[in-house]
Specification:
This protein is of the alpha+beta class and 139 residues long. It has one domain. It is 27% helix and 27% strand. It contains four helices and seven strands. Strands 1, 2, 3, 4, 5, 6 and 7 form a seven-stranded antiparallel β-sheet that branches. A hairpin with a 3-residue loop joins strand 2 and strand 3.
């Protein structure tokens, strides 16, 4: 899945629920996404159940993806990659998710990844390379 950033601040959000989620959880003026840039999506989470967010890396060096409001992006390549699964909840997220199976099925994978667990980091970096190869002609 490939998306293009069309906004990176609260004022770029249109839905009331997204603005409420921003006010509740964000303590920044804007995200580090660059308007006009294309990004690979590594998962979709439904924050507070009804606010979709894309898991993306904003730089080549990122070792883990970070949630960003889906409203800040235009979907350029909307296919859900083969091997992704839907889960109504996971230990990492309270709401529904669409994630690569190897991430969704491992207990607290994202927590391990954020904590720098070597196996989780290696797994994600492998996924990142696979996705980069899959979409190399579209970025």
């Amino acid at each position: 899945m490939i998306v293009k950033c069309i906004g990176n601040a609260r004022e770029h959000l249109s839905s009331k629920r997204s603005k409420q989620a921003w006010d509740k959880y964000c303590n920044i003026e804007e995200t580090c996404c660059e308007i006009g840039e294309k990004y690979i999506v590594y998962g979709i989470i439904f924050f507070d159940f009804d606010v979709p967010q894309f898991l993306i890396c904003t730089s080549e060096d990122d070792q883990y993806p970070v949630p960003h409001f889906a409203e800040h992006f235009k979907i350029l390549e909307g296919d859900i990659p083969e091997g992704w699964v839907f889960k109504s909840e996971t230990p990492d997220y309270e709401g529904p998710v669409i994630l690569p199976k190897r991430i969704a099925n491992e207990y607290i994978f994202m927590e391990k990844l954020y904590d720098g667990d070597p196996d989780a980091v290696q797994c994600f970096l492998q996924l990142k390379e696979e996705m980069k190869e899959k979409y190399k002609d579209k970025l």
